[in-house]
Amino acid sequence: MLYKFLYKEGTGFIEYIYYLENEKGVRVMLEIKSRELRNFHKEFDQFSDVIAIEAILKGYSKGKLYINDFKNPEALVIWNEFDGFYVSLSNEEIITGVYDILSQVVKDNASGLTGFVIYIDEKYDDQIAQIIPAGKYSKLEVLFYTAENFSKSRRCAGNNVIKEIKYFKDIKSYIGFENLIEVVESTWISYEAFKQHGEGFVAIDEEKKRIMGYCISEHVTNSSIEFSIELEESYQGKGVGFELGQKMQEVCKNTNKRPCWYCTDDNVASMRLAEKLGLELKTNFHVWYIEI
To answer: What is the CATH number of the domain that holds 48?
Structure first.
């Protein structure tokens, strides 16, 4: 059973303390107060190509930080409060305890999920494979696309109506296939934070009064914008995603921030769109998908 207690003593950096009691003993993780997250930035330098981590530590994106010990932490873990963990370890012997408590955190706080993702240094692959029950995990290859300039993107030839999604009064009369505020708040700490620091667009079918798709900045830092594009099925393959992507490219160019795009290596359509937008594959890494 997982126990959560308000932490009232010490430095003021700790919000809660978690105890997990099971047949393997007692596991402990400490939750860091949100306003103190930026103090732990250097511990995640190894994940420099993951824009979400910096955005979480800056306080723009949702996320919680757990450590196993305040004075001499050997495990630091960021949870995106949805389906993923970023794990930084300096002692491989505690990996089992970290996995146990994080699995329980997901079960207790993210009902409805069928699994979650762990991104950890590949040198721990053997240990991860040993502690997760057979048949309950798989490795996913993630591709990271970006661009240092914007000259390679083709010009947009479409004529769809593109509107900013910050101003819902302009699009509330259109039929949407998703609740856009919920989409924004799935990664941002609030819709207000998104309006202040984020960017987003929708493509409008004026004749049918429908939202064909959207493009939002999921994570933003001082130097980068990670964005994603989603389309209603009937509008896929018609260049709508490309038009939306080009609007975000304009934002990146005007704010002098690099565009960032992630997809798995089995998502051919996503890879093609990234390349069409002029983005280039910078690196790839694998994550572990764990079934609950």
So the answer is: 3.40.630
pLDDT tens digits, one per residue of 243-266: 999 999 999 999 999 999 999 999
Is the same domain home to 126 and 159?
Answer: no
3-state SS, 73-110, equals CCEEEEECCCCEEEEEECCHHHHHHHHHHHHHHHHHHC
Cβ neighbours for 117, distance < 8 A, ≥ 6 positions apart: 83, 84, 85, 140, 287, 288, 289, 290
- Give 86's pLDDT tier (boundaries 50, 70, 90): very high
> How far are the Cα atoms of 21, 57, 65, 93 from residue 26, in angstroms, in the given order?
5, 28, 20, 15
φ, ψ at 269 (rounded to 5°)? -60, -40
Which residue blocks in the chain are alpha helix, DSSP H?
Answer: 51-58, 95-109, 125-131, 180-185, 191-197, 240-255, 268-276
Cα separations in angstroms, 81 against 17, 36, 76, 103, 212: 17, 17, 15, 13, 28
Tell me, yes or no, whether 51 lies in a domain: yes
> 212 and 254 share a domain?
yes
**Distance from C-alpha of 239 to C-alpha of 236, rounded to nearest angstrom:** 7
What CATH number is given to the structural domain containing 210?
3.40.630.30
Q: What DSSP character marks residue 188?
A: B
Residue 292 resides in a domain: no
Residue that is last in its domain, among 81, 105, 132: 132
What are the phi and psi torsion angles at 165 (to 5°)? -90, 5
Q: How many CA atoms lie within 13 A of 37 on its CB side?
A: 22
pLDDT, tens digit, 9 for 90 and up, residues 159-184: 567 777 655 555 666 778 788 888 89
Q: Does the pTM of the predicted model rise above 0.70?
A: yes
Whether the Cβ atoms of residue 219 and residue 84 lie closer than 8 Å to each other: no
